[in-house]
TrEMBL record:
Pfam families: AMP-binding_C_2
Protein name: 4-Hydroxybutyryl-CoA synthetase (AMP-forming)
Entry superkingdom: Archaea
AMP-dependent ligase C-terminal domain mapped to chain residues: 378-470
């Protein structure tokens, strides 16, 4: 059997066995998109993960020169994997190694299965915010499974069903996998009407986008927490109410106070769901009723968490660097690939009460990337903690930039938007006190640069919460 034939056989098997739901849209009365898979017993899930991990490792060893050479250099061989918990034996792959391979073997590097390279249906790319962008090739199987993963939470949590109008205000350009053709295709599986608006064009076409929201009476809106807030503020200023019933929060963990502000500026919203993901195809979604707990589709991937200094597994309850293995990406496998996010090594495996979903949940939100951690007076901070505090300051828009000028800083320097035309010493002092108390500093350890609305730094539809001013 050729590599292509085996790839197509696995794809057919996944659909036939029901891991990819091919009967869509389901009956609207069905609460879960794929009940069979979403409510599998823990024992079934454990066996499935072990089988799929061994399969993808064997596949990569036999078909991907990059992995075979990289693993040999680290003393790893596939027969070391007995079950899914042995994933920690696999050498961690970080972006620097991937970039070296991509530079030496453009455009995809030797990590791509060459027999499948000319059959890819979609090219994805990271933003390149931390260096050279990395590219991914998605074939028919990978696209199909990712659309399945999207449909699970859209149908089940956000109630995206026939007659629902969904607006995707994520990035519609730059090879971004969560825009067309993936998320919109998941909408069609749900039977919904999809509007591919594109968050990066909101600033230049603001009036047009606001008109679309009103005319189409958009039910479910997907964009970053910051653009959600901005659109709501714009609506209030113009004297109309946004129609959104469900807010899908992408692009960064939403702080508790951010959600409260979103419900204030979007009075028709009854639900705000944090959706974490990467361009590569990793994802975890907040379960309604379990705020801050993000469910992982365990038939798709395995997460493990390591100490970024030692690469050793983090202890239970400790925070560390998130590492992930995609179990069904055969065209360009990503096995034990560091995602660079910072998260607690603690998961809940008890089914939730509302849906009965058996897949594991992170015990808390994913607060940000490891490189976003910074210290002020020896205290470790992340932008999400600062965001929560900024939202407690009156007359601000919630938009801010943390200015990082050193690895060990003696002050928190932050740019904050305020609606006040005049910032007096009393307002500034009160704001610094609020920030300091919320994040565990003294008032004199906080320095605020006040700017008018619209003067913070954004990258497309994302607020640039972390401005690194350190010398490289």
């Amino acid at each position: 059997m050729t590599v292509l034939q085996e790839y197509e056989r696995i794809h057919e098997e996944l659909r036939k066995e029901g891991y990819i739901n091919s009967q869509y849209p389901p009956n609207p009365s069905e609460r879960l998109w794929n009940r069979k898979v979403m409510t599998m017993s823990r024992d079934e899930l454990e066996k499935l993960k072990s089988f799929r991990l061994k399969r993808i490792v064997k596949w990569a060893w036999e078909n991907v020169p990059f992995y075979r050479n990289y693993w040999k250099s680290k003393g790893f061989e596939p027969d070391q994997i007995r079950d899914w918990k042995d994933v920690i034996k696999i050498p961690i792959l970080r972006k620097d190694e991937l970039r070296k391979d991509l530079s030496a073997n453009p455009p995809f590097g030797s990590i791509m299965v060459q027999d499948l390279a000319k059959r890819i249906r979609f090219v994805g790319a990271t933003s390149g915010s931390t260096g050279l962008p990395t590219f991914q090739g998605w074939g028919a199987l990978e696209l199909d499974y990712f659309e399945e993963a999207q449909a699970r939470y859209l149908w089940t949590f956000a109630e995206v069903k026939p007659t629902t109008v969904y607006a995707n205000y994520l990035n519609m350009s730059g090879f971004y996998s969560w825009g067309p053709p993936l998320v919109e295709t998941a909408m069609w599986r749900c039977g919904a009407t999809a509007i591919a608006g594109g968050g990066e064009t909101y600033f230049s076409w603001k009036n047009r986008h606001n008109l679309i929201f009103r005319l189409w009476k958009v039910d479910v809106m997907a964009t970053t927490p910051w653009l959600h807030r901005l659109i709501g503020e714009e609506a209030r200023a113009e004297g109309w109410e946004s129609p959104f019933k469900v807010l899908l929060l992408h692009g960064g963990a939403a702080a508790e106070n951010t959600k409260k502000k979103l419900f204030q500026v979007h009075p028709n919203a009854r639900l705000a769901i944090s959706v974490w993901g990467t361009t590569d195809g990793h994802m975890a979604v907040e379960v309604p009723g379990h705020e801050g707990q993000l469910v992982i589709w365990e038939d798709m991937e395995i997460f493990d968490i390591v100490d970024p200094k030692t690469d050793e597994p983090a202890s239970q309850g400790e925070r560390g660097e998130l590492v992930a293995t995609l179990l069904n990406h055969f065209t360009m496998p990503l096995i034990r690939y560091s995602l660079g996010d910072y998260v607690k090594n603690e998961f809940i495996t008890e089914p939730d009460e509302k849906y009965g979903i058996t897949h594991a949940r992170f015990v808390e939100p994913i607060p940000g990337r490891v490189e976003w951690m910074f210290k002020v007076k020896g205290k470790l901070l992340l932008p999400i903690y600062v965001e929560d505090a900024v939202n407690e300051i009156p007359e601000t828009t919630g938009m801010f930039n943390v200015l990082i000028y050193g690895n060990e800083m003696d002050k928190l320097r932050i740019r904050v938007e305020t609606r006040r035309t005049l910032v007096d010493s009393s307002y500034d002092s009160s704001a610094r006190e609020t920030l300091a108390e919320r994040i565990g500093l003294n008032k004199d350890d906080v320095e605020i640069e006040w700017v008018e609305p619209g003067k913070t730094v954004w990258t497309g539809y994302k607020l640039q919460v972390f401005l690194d001013q350190r010398k490289k």
